[in-house]
Amino acid sequence: MANPSTCWRKFPANNTSPVVAQKPNPATFHLNTLITKPRAYSCKAYSATAAKSPLAATTIPRREPGPSDVQIDIQYCGVCHSDLHFARNEWNFTQYPAVPGHEIIGRVTAIGGAVKKFKVGDTVGVGCLVDSCRTCPDCRAGLEQFCPDMTMTYGSADKHLGGGTLGGYAQGIVVAEEFVLRIPANLNPAATAPLLCAGITTYSPLRHWKVGPGQKVGIVGLGGLGHMGVKFARAFGAQVVLFTTSPGKVADGRRLGAHEVVISTDEAQMTAHAGSLDFILDAVSATHDLNAYLNLLKRDGNLVLVGAPEKPLPVSAFPLIMRRRSFSGSLIGGLPETQEMLDFCGQHNITSDIEMIRMDQINEAYERMLKSDVKYRFVIDMASLK
Ligand code: NAP
Ligand code: ZN
Ligand code: ZN
Known about the structure:
Layout: E1 40-47, E2 56-63, E3 69-78, H1 81-87, E4 104-111, E5 123-126, E6 129-131, H2 137-140, E7 151-152, E8 172-176, E9 181-182, H3 189-192, H4 198-208, E10 216-220, H5 224-235, E11 239-244, H6 250-256, E12 260-263, H7 267-271, E13 277-282, H8 290-294, E14 297-305, H9 317-321, E15 326-329, H10 335-348, E16 354-357, H11 362-370, E17 377-381
Parallel strand pairs: 10-11, 10-13, 11-12, 13-14, 14-15, 16-17
Antiparallel strand pairs: 1-2, 3-4, 3-8, 3-17, 4-5, 5-9, 6-7
Helix pairs in contact: 4-5, 4-10
The chain binds NADP nicotinamide-adenine-dinucleotide phosphate (NAP) and zinc ion (2 copies).
């Protein structure tokens, strides 16, 4: 997801860039000429032009690949709730035109001369990050998501072309090799796309706080993130309790791996779990009562927020101080951990449960996401844009 507090730097409102050459021919392209001022080619995409306008077809520039770049023909892009928050300026830092999309799977169509890890034809992934400073303590620790100079896939300043970075609701993208991920061959590519954000955002905190056997773990909200949280918490050996506002998701919650499903609007069901959970992962996209969940933690338990609702969520002192509970947050994951997560999914055959849509169904998909009517991640078939 885009992070307003650390990633945002102002950029000119228009993507005025040294556009527009023809789409490069991988066989003939010479990289040395591109280093100082990259040329660009045009690419079909979907963008929002204002907070209240629907997304619509457009054309955007992409830089021609430099020596360390990988050019990718996008096949699938997952639809994260962050895309909706961003397109509608709910976090107050969107500049338009905005092209969301940071759960990208595609085929390599060209590589720069210095690229070592990938070759033309490989299936690869790109998540929420496309660059960082590579030298700060966070980058050196493989935690590029906390780099003060990171470049998000959309909504950051584009160091190459000017303007803002533009995301994966597009035919193609060009990304530095270090920010491109290998995809296990046994996984369905479309169902793998959501791992690039929903997957790593839930895997990372569960790993960081060492969730595992003997622990009772709550996952709040069965959406894109939440359903991956249920799958990972179960795969890590925890006792998993899903908290949902949707009675229609109970059976799916169990099928996805929850040992128990609680309807969070039912006070009696909530009270039955008071003071009993070691860890809670909260993946809700809208305003809700955090204190009700803090009260479900044991002494020294931890509630980790990954959801990023538009408005602040009030936290009362007493649920925290009475039992030395913690309240924490977590942001996606760095590149090494994202690759680790993908490899783990390859080994354990874990992917997202998806509903495939055409690009021109994106506005309808956003409306359904707002009604919690997603089972459990929309993925855009990018062939529909061509
Ligand atoms: P999503 O697919 O729309 O799922 C959100 C779920 O939250 C819904 O399915 C629903 O689950 C629950 N929910 C929605 N409205 C609610 C309400 N008013 N009260 C209680 N529960 C409600 O969204 P997502 O893509 O998983 O993203 C979830 C949040 O995480 C978003 O805010 C997104 O921006 C953020 N995010 C953060 C990071 C990070 O790095 N921290 C990364 C990606 C996304 P039930 O039907 O089960 O109740
Ligand atoms: Zn996301
Ligand atoms: Zn850095």
